[in-house]
Amino acid sequence: MIKHLTLAGLFPAEEAARKALASLDPYELRAKALDEKLPLAHLGRALFHLNQRRGFKSNRKADRGKKQDDDSGKITIGVHRLRDQMGEKDARTFGEFLHQRRVEAKSQSAIPHVRTRVLSLVPDEGGKPVDTYDFYPNRAILEEEFEAIWLAQAPHHPDVLTNEAHKRFYEVIFYQRPLKAPKIGLCTFGTGEERLPKIHPRFQRRRLLEEVNALRIVRPGAEATKLEKPERDALLSKLRDKKTVSYASLRKALKLDPDARFNKESENRKDMKGDEIAAEMTHKTRFGKGWLSMPWEAQWEVVSRLEALESDTEVEAFRGWLRERHALSPAQAEAVTGARLPEGFGRFGLTATTGLIKALEDEVIVYSEAVEKAGLGHHSDFRDGQVWTDKQGRPALPYYGAVLERHIMPGTADPAEQDDALRIGRLTNPTVHIGLNQLRHVVNYLIRRYGPPEEIALELARELKLDDERKRELNTRNRQNREAAEQRSKKLAEINQADKGGNRALLKLWEELNRDNVLDRRCVYTGRQISIDMLFNGAAEIDHILPFSATLDDSGGNRLLCLKEANRIKRKRSPVEAAADLRAHFGADAAWDAIAARAARLPREKRWRFEPDAMTRFDAQGGFLARHLVDTQHLSRLAREYLSALYPHKGEGTGHVWVSPGRLTEMLRRNWSLNHHLPDHNLAGANQPKNRRDHRHHAIDAIVVAVTDRGMLNRIAREAGRHGHEEAHRITADLPEPWEGFSDEVGRVVRSIVVSHRPDHGTASKAGLKRGRDATAGRLHNDTAYGLTGEKDARGLDIVVTRKPIASLKKPADLEAIRDPDLREKLKAWTKGKDGPAFEEAIRRFGHAELGPRSYPGLRRVRVIEPLTVIKISDRGGRPYKGYKGDSNYRFDVWELKTGKWKDEVVSMFEAHQPGWTSPIRAANPTARKVLSLQQNDVIAIEREGERELVRVVKFSGGSIVLAPPQEAGSLKARDADKEDPFRYIYGSPTSLQRWRARQVRIDQLGRVQDPGFPARKPRPGKA
Hints:
Helices cover 39% and strands 13% of the residues. The longest helix is centred in the middle third of the chain and has 27 residues. By secondary structure, the chain is an alpha+beta fold. Strands 25-24-23-22-26-27 form a 6-stranded antiparallel β-sheet. Strands 16-15-14-18-17 form a 5-stranded antiparallel β-sheet, with no helix packed on it. It has a 3-stranded antiparallel β-sheet with strand order 4-3-6, with no helix packed on it. The protein is globular, with a radius of gyration of 36 Å. The chain is built from 41 helices and 27 strands.
């Protein structure tokens, strides 16, 4: 902007003259420009200020799908409020409005703010206080001011303010780049097509068919039945123009019995999603029912055009097209542009989607069957027969993106690009991205050392970051569970029972028998009432609905409270298998119809287990192994598919990669006496299953997984049948060790393992890197800019000033840091005698435009001072004008001086990335040589008491370095402070490091230590 203003003669060329313009009041200039001739430099100052405050511009793509209670809704309200206020003051422009407010102020301290502020305690329609803006200038208001100023000043400066200049400055000030289009992944089935967006009518149709075809009708005591085609079509008709339809409404559409349920229905899922696009477009204010008769190609033309809209000009053109092409009224066209469309993409391209739709429409089949019918191969095995090798022709895993193409965001596809992640694409989740890359390095290293593995067993389950919606659901469920647990604790106190987990679990199972009526909680098998006293006197006990010996399923969904007597009769059978014996013993109340009716009141995850084919369904899903595979998290599933690339051939017996369930690993390691091999394994209590404060516990898990096979799982199932679920911990007790002396050998191996950590050194100071690749992921400094006062404290630290929210003042002592003495004294008087919550409430009211003092209306931020060591930023003349807090250290260097003494030097992240930065120690001691250069997570060898120890760099500061054994895990800071924990940090200094003969070591992917010995860096010949 400055360049164009200078070239046009609206700004002086000299920097000093330009800076002098900063003393002019820009709001006064913007107001005067409407009525009188301004000097060109003054006009340039007004335009420059307008450029700095060019206003908010709504973007259709960014705002799509937001509700009115989102920030965009608040902005709209603020814009309307500003229009009203400008009208009340007869202000022609926003600049004139702000100038009038400032002129009308009665004193200097009463000048109102010029930037938008959030006002709290403004009641909504329901009287609830909400946040809103007092006013908000949008782009259109600022554009109107620009035009008004230009129109008023052009006659005074016709040679400068030409039409060409108008066009140029309008573009400079108001041009906004369009949003960058996202990269779209390719079809899962390898058709080479881009995946369809969720707004595509074919995506909506395929998804709806899949979900409806998967529905099953569950009636008490009967097997779940699939829908007949007329039933399926009736539900499709019900869902085709609705966003959601309740399962109750769907049951009514099929005229089902009140006791019938759909298999996907549950307490937390009462609705089924319909066609989201049709639901929007068939609204009577848009296309109405005429939308349903349009070919999908025409529908796609409408929604694709709508989705692409960004500017107001494009919106108007689109509305005109709707009126002309589809004969919509202006009101209908406007309503169409306001439709809320779903975001994101599906997994399939148009060809695969079309094939799936035909297969799903022709028959009432589920997705996996439709994939086969459509000729798309297998629904989950995507191996393509390609053999992956390294440069030497050995089997090797490629970059994960080459195998998991259907899961990644596509890359540049530029053959010249050397970075696989950029060329092929990468996963958006950084944890999974790093995990799979590390998996590749380790597996390929193992293959080079030992050859390709015959079989790979995984035990991976990592909880990853969730999206906002999933977080809200999880938080809501956790809150509900916590509140329910608190109520159960109160109940236990009322009946004088111990408040412990087992008793709370009994109460929970008792409540599930009938949530609505506490007086009608009956044993599902017998129909006899179970009172609360029976929970604790042994009359009732927990049953596994499907036998634990056959399923190894001890989850809450498989647990039920019943009479002890009924449980003895049911034994290790499913409900339907035990039905005849239950009736013979308990009579008509235990008839199967009666059992099924009572089971229909149970939670959904329990109800299906009472269906006659429950055990068959469990086995059809793959039983124990498959269920645990489903339960593993995202990283587990991707790792399994990724590792399968080492075995490219399909067919019987080609599944060399499988998942070992964590429950089995835990049972085996305990019964083979493996937990005690790590020290302090019972540090957290006698029932601690393993020492998670030692990283080597992962190695024990890996050993157990390695010696576990499918045959062993079958043996465990048989042992479970012999011992019963009452003694779950003894299931593996009779299984012998894999070989004699196994546990002792595991102990020797595990204790000799060296744990390696993944250091992240960034790319600072690495020569030969292309421009743009020599960046680092670390922050060079804190984001906060500090003003320099030129003063220093007693320690020589700079006194700096910064602005902080007034709400950050939490206690009276914080007021001393306020720079403005008048404001400081007024706040002290305002909060006098208050502390804690009362103090904070007073601070909030002080900053409120209506509740606070008149002298500081709407105060939100205050200037505070503090002593800091800052990185000073200078102007072109070399004068420091602001500073940043360095925050993080990059490297701990140790130099050996010519005297033989070791001296440390901490290099900050900022210093390490400065071109031409040189070490002050080296500059002062040209003969000094660097003996150590350490960063966080590096490992060094030290010798104390004559033996080598390996320790990891945890943190460091000037003169001190903090070390810890590499196997130590958990919160080391908290452990170091815990007197009951034997772990302690190792504190070192340059002198102690020299005494300990310290040297940096490398640990490869197989845990082998490369120790150069001491001294690690030998003096060069002729050097000190």
